[in-house]
Amino acid sequence: MSMLFGVNVVQARLKSGKHGILEMLVRRGARSSRLQKVVAQAERLSIPIRMIDAAALDELTDTNHQGIGLSVESVPNISEKELDELADSPNVLFLVLDGVTDPRNLGACLRSAATLGVTAVIIPKDRSASVTDAASKAASGADQQIPLVVVTNLSRCLRRLAERGVWIVGTVLDGDTEIANVDLTGRIAMVMGSEGRGIRQKSRQHCDHLAMIPMVIDTFGFNVSVATGICLYEAHRQRHIGC
């Protein structure tokens, strides 16, 4: 079981329907119109609603819960063995986050991944953010929608995916081609690096393509979550041409 907090996060999760939602927690005496609209939405979905004291709600999270929480079934993490089996499926799209340590960036990447049809998100066990309350809030509930794979050795994972026929596409500032020129319609693992260091050399050596996002002014670059959204949208666009 996992918990989601905040009006926007809870509202976003409710849009996906009642499947996997256990109950809604509402601070006793809460009267804001925004919160009441979300409660009404839950009532229409026949989701159990439990009133709870503010102190009890405070104990459940360190984030600003805004008087509302949602208890949901956790999406089970995929094991590395299950990842191997999943890699054999046609048209899989993996998002690989190499060294993204900011939980809010992780959450935003998960949100883009869930929105744009990613099969699973892969992160390393070490030197990576985990799904904390901050990440979950940034994900707006998407962390409960998309499978996560935590691997002990990212380089070995990429090599194994490549051996199974998955094309590895790394995104770097000095890429040899623009992301729009890379064929993203097959079985793809999209590798995004941290903002400071980018993709590590051990990950780069497994990439079939090193692609870049064209920029008018490259002084500032993109936040990793923004870059992830751009690249995943390009994959989505290519996969749905003519649909």
Layout of strands and helices, then pairs:
Layout: E1 2-5, H1 7-14, E2 21-27, H2 33-44, E3 49-52, H3 54-58, E4 68-72, H4 80-87, E5 93-98, H5 103-115, E6 120-124, H6 133-139, E7 148-151, H7 154-163, E8 167-171, E9 177-178, E10 188-193, H8 201-204, E11 209-212, H9 224-239
Parallel strand pairs: 2-3, 5-6, 5-10, 6-7, 8-10, 8-11, 9-11
Antiparallel strand pairs: 1-4, 2-4
Helix pairs in contact: 1-2, 5-6, 5-9
Mean pLDDT: 90
Give the N-terminus to C-terminus distance in angstroms: 37 Å
> Major sheet: order of its strands?
7-6-5-10-8-11-9
State the low-pLDDT regions, or none.
none
How many extended strands? Answer: 11
The CATH homology group name of the largest domain: SPOUT methyltransferase, trefoil knot domain
Strand content: 15-25%
CATH hierarchy class name of the largest domain: Alpha Beta
CATH architecture of the largest domain: 3-Layer(aba) Sandwich
Write down the overall geometry: elongated
| Helix proportion | 25-40%
Spell out the helices and strands N to C: EHEHEHEHEHEHEHEEEHEH
- Determine the structural class based on helices, strands and strand pairing: alpha/beta
User: Largest sheet at a glance?
Assistant: 7 strands, parallel
Indicate how many domains the architecture comprises: 2
Rg estimate, integer Å = 19 Å
Reported by name, the CATH topology of the largest domain is Alpha/beta knot
